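Each record in this resource describes a single protein on a pair of labelled lines. The shape at a given residue is found from the number at the same position. The record below illustrates this layout:

***
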Amino acid sequence: MIAFVKGMLAYKGLDFAIVEAGGVGYQMGMSTTALASLPEVGQPAHVFTYLQASDAGISLYGFATQEEKNLFEQLITVSTVGPKMALAALSTFAPSDLSSAIMASDVDAISRIPGIGKKKASRIVLELQGTLAKAGEAAAPQGSAVVGQVLEDLLAMGFSSAEADLAVKGAPDGLTEAEMLQYALKRLGQ
């Protein structure tokens, strides 16, 4: 996996950039927002990346921030949403705005993304709402690492994300992971 590329910006196109690092030019597809954040050609650049290997070949995608990269990775898990559509979404919305629209089930806003109609927007909401909610909880300051780990544990045990979210809701602060898991399992058993 190539986590990032740091080097000299060699070229900036309409939907891609080339960064030279160690004598190699890395071409990466990027959102218009990420492209706009790049420096002028010939200046140092630091780009977070996602490498995709498929039957069609190997593709590299670039992002201005880790948040943008994380949301891209979430978007491409949605059936019928590929990397190009995910980049179109990130070109239309800032990552925080897109996450907010998904969390609010704002199908009308999401369907403004080129190539995404109401049906596909509804699918994005359906498939990502729970995942983004967990990511939001993981960003919460109090016991966030414990809650996130317990949610992962419950999902690994076969519980749905809705069941897992409900099971940890209202848990007392300061629990260890084992205590939180025990609390969640008791709630699920009721």
